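Title: [Solved] Adenylate kinase isoenzyme 6 homolog 3D structure

Original question kept below for reference.
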Amino acid sequence: MTQDDGKRRKKPNILVTGTPGTGKTTTSSALADATQLRHINVGDLVKEKNLHEGWDEQLDCYVINEDLVCDELEDLMEGGGNIVDYHGSDFFPQRWFDLVVVLQTDNSVLYDRLSNRGYSESKLSNNIECEIFGVLLEEAKESYAEDIVVALKSDNIEDISKNVSNLSDWVRNWQHPPA
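Solution (posted by the thread starter after getting help):
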């Protein structure tokens, strides 16, 4: 992937996306530790920097201001070396990412995870339906070149460990391609 000036970043940018509860933050944190890339949790960033337009009572979440989020991340993303963790993917500039990872979790596992978080019945149902219909994988495929979008199973700690190992290998190969 190249930047606008034609020079390749020294380190890749990775987007880790998926339905809430699929392990995005756990995977992203472990991958950041393994690769020394910067983990950016967009949900936390939105709260810390007030990059939202208020609270949505019905969805029980902040209504993020996508333009403010992109403005906040622009310089970091151009420099490379970031793992961006967020459930949405379609509003980020395509040029930012070298790999888009969509985590997917079995519905019964996901149901338990979200129930344990105390999600309301409507929020729980909404997220389970999103996972059943593969909404976030489809969104990623529509927003980025299909050859950089990868879906990974994330049902348990073994899956997460395997994913982190494989993604760490990908980062090493991206930074130092085989001759």
